[in-house]
């Protein structure tokens, strides 16, 4: 479970990214966070794995106060949380499978790839992750030969290889055309349903949020202005 208790984030320039945010997200929920550009969606999502430090309040993940984690425990905690970005964040000049294999070993990745230091088991798991998102056939293609939607699926497979309990996705479909965006959203949904992974997606495209998420959180000027079922969202958010 993810729990925010009266969380505030004030940036050094005085901008309030989060304003007294309190909410609970149970394991296995599919939550869309919607709001205009600058509303605080990124700040909200990036506080969870401490890419952004909160200024005050409490933020707990599975009962652990996130701000108390450091060093090894912070790294271990972050491995349990997959992060997906609008820009995919892949190494484009190498193969799909190498990108997936290096998910768990960012520091060692180049050395390991160079010397082929991956076990058969790791390769099987990487291929399974690619199969899960429907791009097994591209495993040995270079990433820069793939379309945007395919690249986002590689990013998703890479995240799955970490065995995360939570996936945080910051505008994952913003760079994709509408058809591809739907395909990627349905991959998120499938992963959420089949694997009970909590999925939190920042998305400015309200219709897609309503179509795929079960819960919608609306944010404006750092404040939660809506939190409830996707079916009850009105136009005010
Ligand atoms: P969203 O993801 O909804 O577009 P953000 O969380 O990125 O919104 O930003 C919320 C507010 O905080 C915006 O006003 C933004 O300009 C500001 N902000 C975000 N990051 C920083 C930063 N590093 N320093 C100062 N202000 C920031
Ligand atoms: P993304 O789309 O990847 O979230 P952004 O354009 O929102 O990227 O932000 C890029 C970087 O700039 C982030 O580190 C964010 O914290 C920072 N940032 C965003 N808004 C501001 C701002 N108003 N002042 C200073 N830094 C900001």
From TrEMBL:
Record keyword Cell membrane present: yes
Keyword Transmembrane helix listed: no
GO molecular function: ABC-type phosphonate transporter activity; ATP binding; ATP hydrolysis activity
Superkingdom, natural source: Bacteria
Pfam families: ABC_tran
NCBIfam families attached to this UniProt entry: ABC_phnC
Name of the protein in its database record: Phosphonate ABC transporter, ATPase subunit
Species annotation: Lachnoclostridium phytofermentans (strain ATCC 700394 / DSM 18823 / ISDg) (Clostridium phytofermentans)
């Amino acid at each position: 479970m993810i729990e925010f208790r009266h969380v505030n984030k004030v940036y050094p320039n005085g901008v309030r990214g989060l304003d007294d945010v309190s909410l609970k997200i149970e394991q296995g929920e599919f939550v869309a966070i919607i709001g205009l550009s600058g509303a605080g969606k990124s700040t909200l999502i990036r506080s969870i794995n401490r890419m952004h430090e909160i200024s005050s309040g409490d933020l707990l993940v599975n009962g652990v106060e996130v701000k108390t984690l450091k060093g090894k425990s912070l790294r271990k905690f972050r491995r349990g949380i997959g992060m997906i970005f609008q820009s995919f964040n892949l190494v484009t000049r190498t193969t799909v499978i190498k990108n997936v294999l290096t998910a768990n070993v960012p520091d060692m990745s180049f050395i390991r790839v160079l010397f082929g230091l991956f076990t058969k088991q790791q390769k099987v798991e990487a291929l399974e992750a690619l199969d899960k998102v429907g791009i097994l056939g591209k495993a040995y293609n270079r990433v820069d030969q793939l379309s945007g939607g395919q690249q986002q699926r590689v990013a998703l497979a890479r995240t799955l290889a970490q065995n995360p309990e939570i996936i945080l996705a910051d505008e994952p479909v913003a760079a994709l055309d509408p058809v591809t965006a739907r395909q990627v959203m349905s991959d998120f949904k499938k992963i959420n349903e089949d694997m009970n992974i909590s999925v939190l997606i920042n998305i400015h495209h309200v219709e897609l949020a309503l179509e795929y998420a079960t819960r919608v959180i609306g944010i404006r000027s750092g404040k939660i202005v809506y939190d409830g079922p996707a079916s009850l969202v009105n136009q005010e958010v």
